[in-house]
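If your schedule permits, I should be very grateful for your opinion on a structural question. I have a record of one protein: its chain in single-letter code and its fold written as discrete structure tokens. Kindly check, if you would, that the fold set down in the tokens agrees with what the sequence suggests. I remain grateful for any guidance, and I place the record below:

***
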Amino acid sequence: VDHALILTAGIGTRLRPLTYVRAKPAVPVAGTPFIRHVLAWLAHQGIQNVCLNLHYLPETITAVVGDGRDLGMNVRYLWEPKILGSAGGPRAALPVLGSGSFLIVHGDTLTNVNVQDLMTTHRQRQASVTLAVMPNPNPQRYGGVVTDHDGWVQRFVPAGDPTPSYHFVGVQMVEPAVFETLPIGEPASTIGGIYSTLASKHTRAIQVHMITEQFLDIGTPKDYLEVSLTLAGDKESLLHGIGTKIGQDTQVIRTALWDNVHVGARCSLDHCVVTDGVRVPDGSNFRNVVITGKTERRQEPFEQKIGNLLVTPLSHNDAEDITKS
């Protein structure tokens, strides 16, 4: 397999307010934009031709990826004037993905799945679709994939369903025929859409491939910071973007600073995310928050406006102790 489609058109609602500033794939994770982690993994797996679909804040993605040559890849972009979804996106991309099996990767998947192993399962089982899965780590949070004893998918269940299920990690091998009958340019979904129909009509269409590799989920700002801290390890410099400046007598602990952030003197930032270009005033104290510059967006009830900054609790549901400045 030499072609992959990375789904990068989404708006990243759950990751707001970070995604008001950059599209989710362009968000820096331990010094490297999310999408470049994904591309580096694919390059390491020997995949050279990659297509990205774009819709929301596309220039933030193209700015960090370019043509992919520095990764030894050929990257092409497909523009979606309206979001086509997890099945409509692949349908539109078929003309540039070649005629054989190809990989689809969700743009918010951080994993090191072995693509060759996935392909082997796909070919041996002669599946139309093969989903990389793991035991469902949290059925209350994640929907599930229900299979028979032989790994063929029977149905998909929503989060909270008590049926024993697997968790789909956002990496799959597919046959073009699965998408060929869809109308071009019309939104369509895989799970809850064509895959659900396929599984109910054909008992041996969608197979699962169990992974043991790492899978990191970045759904919310809190997840994002945890994953960034994990990947940075003791290399704190990986959490500080280009052009960051930190004033005298200032403490910055377990905090991600994006590009061109200036933190004033006598500040304390603990467990925060500060987005591009923000100026944190002298003497500020922040804990467990995201700090964004003022954009042309609506202020949410759980956010505080401080000067020209918007301060959002890292978890919207624990809005207690934002700031004392």
Notes: The first helix runs from residue 18 to 21.
